[in-house]
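Revision sheet: structure tokens.
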Amino acid sequence: MSLPLMEMFYTLQGEGYHTGRAAFFIRLGGCDVGCVWCDVKESWNAGTHPVVEESKIVKEALKHPSRFAVITGGEPCMYDLTTLTGMLKKSGFETALETSGAYPITGTFDWVCVSPKKFKSPLIESLSKADELKCIVFNQSDFQWAEENAKQVSQPCRFFLQPEYSVLNKILPFMIDFVKQHPKWRISLQSHKTMNIP
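Predicted:
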């Protein structure tokens, strides 16, 4: 089994619930969600990335001391992740997923972060598996979008609002006020950009 691989790298998780945690990132190529503010648009076209055997991905992950692997994209759920996550689990990894929720979730995950996008709405079945709901805030109308998605989560879940980086200073005051009024939400910042790491 093989998957289109844009990149894999060892770093710290920069956002959301696991911020600051050492992690091996597996970024798959291919995405049709089309966020206009996406900061990895080079991931969209799967055909521009090499197809790599899952065993080689796991072998590379094992070179690093952390046993926390994050599968991201692109949109990783465009692919069947059963084999990759099975191999990672067998090798002692805790597995995490970052997805828009626009496709069914396959594979075995210890942590699922769903970051729904207006450009392609998430599936209810994907939201129901979310351990973490992370909504990107570009303008004030996104608060209502976040609340609508939060209503669809069917298991204990952490709720995060994350400012789109290009409007950080503009939108952050509104986010602070919103969280003070709706304390189930927390603010997530892209700390990896502050730390200047991948």
